[in-house]
Design goal:
Chain lengths: ~240, ~240
């Protein structure tokens, strides 16, 4: 049986699918957050060097990872929209940007909270911090460019091009740790085994999954709003039960 | 390499790619020379921003010497942002840009010409002015040399990356501020390597690695930005 993969690339069909999926992602994200944070704060032992302060990684690391990953996803959707001229891809890119910016901001904020007790400073001009700040700027530039163009088609295409150009910077962020070897601690999880306690690892991966599911749920909810706004003059929107009532 | 004109048409001169490049550069330079004030404003802005720093942080020479490269680079970055808005806007407003896009020749090459002219008008004067300002900050001669080489390699990248932003924000309200918001983050690597080179020399290391990276950025920008800017222009003009 051939599955029509393109069926859900139309806003008309995707709107309904997204509506059905959101509760699943939202609930599983909430459950994983509770479990992950419980393991992180109650089960995982204190670190022999950093004491209790390290526990911020259960928020900090997932949000850093997601802020970078979401940028690539956003640029990916932007590229799809630019190449195949699909409306939904551009809407997805627009919907991802605020969530990505939020994660970048949380990552910087929690990093500052961790830095004060560990480094004695709220902020140090280390490569990775700076790169994360640049990433936040890139998100803000994307959002600002999209917001300042009135014609939605031009806005989509222009910001898509900007996202693709900006994604050149994401690898620089990743490799900056090796390039400028400074204050920031190197990554603890390596492919050849890790120096972390098992409970810490579990908690981190669970909160990472929770953040991931949260991002999906929020992006789907936002893309539904964007579809409603952009297609408000079409008949299928006016015939929706939630619009009619 | 020849770009084929329509053979049937009489009086149409065939233009080679390099000929086109030279044509665009000459045209933009002539236009810039007719409006010399614009060029001078950018340069004066650069000098002024640099001169404000000692007033802001105090006249201690030790500190100023350390800051010099960073201050000069940031000022160069800001003043190149200032002139970027004019890169396409005049041609956009009087319809020339539309004609250029209809031309049978490659739009990327045309854009490259405009970028080069922009650099010669707004980047090169800064590079030539920088040693004088560096002396005001008591920079050692060796560091000054590296600063100049760095600026020579880096300012074209600023013009080229900036052109993408200028093309994307063409004709928008508040385009100038938006342009800086888009382009400045993308220019940070140039700033880092440019100041890093001077830093390396003044601590007794070789600046070669930083300058090589700057050169690599220049080559990358030279290859990709004309094409990306051409695409951005197509998006903005459709």
């Amino acid at each position: 049986m051939a599955i029509n993969w393109f069926k859900y690339s139309a806003p008309t069909t995707f709107y309904g699918l997204a509506g059905k999926l959101i509760p699943w992602f939202a609930f599983s994200s909430a459950i994983l957050f509770v479990v992950g944070l419980y393991i992180g704060f109650a089960v995982a032992p204190a670190d022999y060097q950093q004491g209790e302060f390290y526990r911020i990684i259960f928020i900090h690391v997932p949000s850093s990872i997601l802020s970078m990953f979401l940028y690539l996803v956003m640029a990916g959707y932007a590229a799809l929209g630019l190449i195949f001229n699909t409306r939904l891809s551009a809407m997805m890119a627009t919907a991802i940007a605020p969530t990505g910016a939020l994660f970048a901001f949380i990552s910087l904020w929690t990093g500052a909270l961790w830095g004060k007790p560990m480094w004695g400073a709220w902020w140090v001009w280390d490569a990775r911090l700076t790169s994360e700040l640049i990433l936040l700027f890139l998100y803000l530039g994307f959002i600002a460019l999209h917001a300042s163009i009135d014609d939605p088609r031009r806005a989509d295409r222009a910001s898509a091009l900007l996202a693709i150009v900006g994604s050149v910077n994401v690898p620089i962020i990743y490799f900056s740790v090796q390039w400028w070897n400074t204050l920031h601690q190197g990554s603890t999880i390596k492919f050849s085994g890790t120096s972390m306690h098992v409970a810490m690892q579990q908690a981190m991966f669970i909160t990472l999954a929770a953040c991931w599911l949260y991002a999906i749920a929020v992006v789907l909810a936002r893309v539904r709003s964007i579809i409603l706004e952009r297609e408000r003059n079409t008949t299928w929107i006016t015939e929706l039960p939630e619009v009619r009532s | 390499m020849m770009v084929n004109g329509h053979d049937g048409q009489t009086g149409m001169k065939k233009t080679t790619l390099l000929g086109l490049l030279a044509l665009v550069i000459r045209r933009d330079l002539v236009l810039a020379m007719r409006r010399r004030a614009d060029v001078l404003t950018t340069l004066i802005f650069f000098v002024m921003v640099v001169s404000l720093f000692p007033l802001g942080v105090g006249p201690e020479m030790d500190m100023l010497r350390k800051m010099a490269a960073g201050v000069l680079w940031v000022a160069a970055l800001l003043s190149s942002m200032l002139s970027l808005g004019r890169l396409f806007s005049a041609d956009y407003l009087d319809g020339t840009l539309e004609q250029m896009m209809l031309a049978p020749q490659s739009l990327s090459m045309l854009v490259l010409g405009k970028m080069t002219a922009h650099w010669m008008v707004s980047g090169l004067p800064l590079v030539l002015m920088a040693p004088v300002l560096g002396l005001q900050f008591d920079m050692p001669v060796q560091a000054l040399g590296v600063l100049i080489i760095g600026l020579l390699l880096g300012t074209p990248v600023l013009s080229m990356v900036g052109a993408i932003g200028a093309a994307l924000t063409l004709g928008l309200r508040g385009g100038g501020v938006l342009l800086s918001l888009l382009v400045l983050p993308l220019c940070i690597p140039v700033l880092i390597f440019g100041t890093g080179a001077v830093e390396a020399v003044s601590t007794g290391l070789s600046a070669a690695s930083h300058l090589s990276l700057l050169g690599a950025l220049l080559v990358l920008a030279l290859v990709f930005t004309p094409w990306v800017t051409a695409q951005a222009l197509r998006i903005s003009m459709e």
